[in-house]
Amino acid sequence: MTTWTRAQVGALGEQRAVEHLQGLGLRILARNWRCRWGELDVIALESDSDTVVFVEVKTRTGDGYGGLAEAVPPDKVRRLRRLAGVWLAGQDRRYAGLRIDVIGVRIGRRRDPEISHLQGVA
After folding, report:
1. What is the CATH architecture assignment of 6-118?
2. Closest C-alpha to 14, from 52, 34, 36, 43
3. pLDDT in tens, 25-78
4. How far apart are the C-alpha atoms of 65 and 80, rounded to whole Å?
5. H or E segment and range at residue 87
């Protein structure tokens, strides 16, 4: 049995989240975008509605830390909003809409990862 580091688990979760988004028809604009105030895990574009989607990815190997709703408390949502604003300010174009989503990836031992996708948390 192989033991994964926290970084490896997180990277796998982000990759599964990106694949999920692409399967929904979203185009990935950036991954792990950083500025001095923090990081946005995934930035994607929903082309049909010209909506930019900022995605927080939470990867879990068990249920010990609660569900997806508990994983992103109000202070985290505020930080995501601020980071989204910073990213948007640096763009040369405008978007018709924006949305903040949370994708939970639960990695089990014997099956494919389970994906939970909450749209429009903010």
Report:
1. 3-Layer(aba) Sandwich (3.40)
2. 43
3. 999 999 999 999 999 999 999 999 999 999 999 988 776 666 666 678 889 999
4. 20
5. helix 74-89
